[in-house]
Amino acid sequence: MHPENSEGALERLELSFSAVCDAARLERATYAAFQWLARNLPSFNPFVAPKPSGPSKGPNIIRSKALLELSCISMYYKRAIPEGIVLASNSLVETCLEYATEIWARPDFQDLAVRQPSLFRLYATIYVALRQCNIAEDAFAQVIQGVYDQGYVTAIEDIPFRVLELRYILDLGGFSHDLPTYRELFEPTLLAKVPSLAYLTDEDAYSVTHTIFYLTDFGHQSIKDVLTDHEYARACSTVTQLLGHYVRRRHWDLVAELLMSCTCLRWFPSPIGPLAWNFLLEAQMPDGSVPGPFSPEKSEMDTEDKRQQRYFEQNYHTTLVTALACFSEEFLSAARINEKEEHLRSRTNSAKKSSTRPNSWPSVARKSLAWLKELGSNIDIDRAPLSATLEILVASWICERGTNENLGIAATKDIASKIMQMAATRRGITSEFIKCDAVLIFSSCGILRAIDAKVPELEDFIATISTSIREADSIGVEPTELFAAQYLLNRLGYHAKPVPPTTSRLRSLSIPDLWMADNKLIRVVCLEISAATSYGEKPLTAEDPFGEQLRHVLSAWLVDSLRLYDLETCCILLRSMKYIGIEDSSDIALGIDFLTAQQKPNGRIGYLGPEEQAVRSQVDVNENTGLYLPIMLTVLWALFELSTSEGGLFSTF
Fold this sequence. Notes:
With 653 residues, the chain is mainly α. It has 33 helices and no strands. The longest helix has 34 residues, at 304-337.
């Protein structure tokens, strides 16, 4: 749920969470995870792992970091569990801490805290974690403080959230430092700057989660003293959108970290929160491990030990953070439940809504029209594909009629003249009509009529199609498949106004199936939305719970399409969002900003260099008409419909 839409839903969301994340289920998952970790303790030993070559031989850095993470998760478990609570995991956590202590106590490990100041955070964090558990000696704190005071640690360059991490470690350990305040350290982080989600990498997502971890002391402190209400709302929105994306990718490592972030933020993300928890807990393997996103290189020559080592390397971190998310949700979420409802509402409703009317649309239209004019001027009446010529017609019409800048319709008339000549001079023009997309054919006919440029051959073809559609009506063909044709034929005067199909087929899909839909199912859903809403004429009501679910699903799909650079699916999703009644949202603004950024200086839309190579290898396929033109038409159609509060493309003819 986006922060701006959260009001009045808190009680319902609590029930959703309690149904999925009951204490017993979370405890079972935590126990299973710690069982697996305890069985694999030797794999955390940096002294038995393959060592680096060269003169700097010592403990393996990857295993050392794994040991750090094991120490921290164990420490956070002990901090989260109220004193006196006896759980099955308690003894396993003690076993993990004892093992970490044995490694830490080795002089050939501990002394590296002084000899390798470049790894200060690693050694300092292990020490702080063990000291928090009353295990490590207090005296070693002077050593850690001395390394910090030498100045190297703060002199080296680091990315913003790592500097925030450094202050967090120092504060947790009670060390003296002169680092800036948490507010000052937050401001240069990626979370504070809120870049477009379309471009965020996995590493960026980890930056978001860890920034939240450090600002909240992993859920033990409220973030309200650092972030403004508006920043808090944006952080919640960012986490929610990323959570939907990574659930769809089955990236359980980031799903666990993002769910932990929700606990830290005292945020109730619905509907994706309960779904994400369910998917994550179901992903846990029978042995207690949780599949990680990383795949170390495999070899058929691997021994059983090597395979086990690879399995550990792939899954240990995800298993650790899943345990962290589980016990934190169980024991720290009480703090957010006790948070006053009015306080949460006032904070979440402070997020400003983004306008869906892009100021950049007129500029995009002008530049696109210039490119279309040049492309149209080079059309060979005898050889050019009819479909491409019709696409230029519709795209030019959108540019000229879709803005309030009095661009006229000269370009549309010019290309219409060529279409008329093609129809009159080419033999077998009907077979070319058949090869064209039906919506393109009907839209072209409507535009040609609007500029008094009827094409008799096209009119005859559509009349024949209309007869076939009426026959299909009589034999009970599924209405969704026919609706687009019926709708446009009605606008052209060939068919009675069709009755929109219900959303029953959409509602029959399970919610998990919707969230995990592949591209084929996404297209089917968007087709159903177009038909059920009559292309936005009858949007779903705001009170419809299914409509609310669809809004969130479409948002997750949109982020996926942007990150995959699937411009066509992105445009279809944006139009579908408009059709179900989303007028003002950060999702639509995200899509618009992304699409307008894809226009090149020459007006062509799309940075499709990799795809160009495939097109150039095909005989008789022009990259402009075969690749860029269809994408441009799709983008222009979406941007035009999102820029107007009136009817869409089909209302212009």
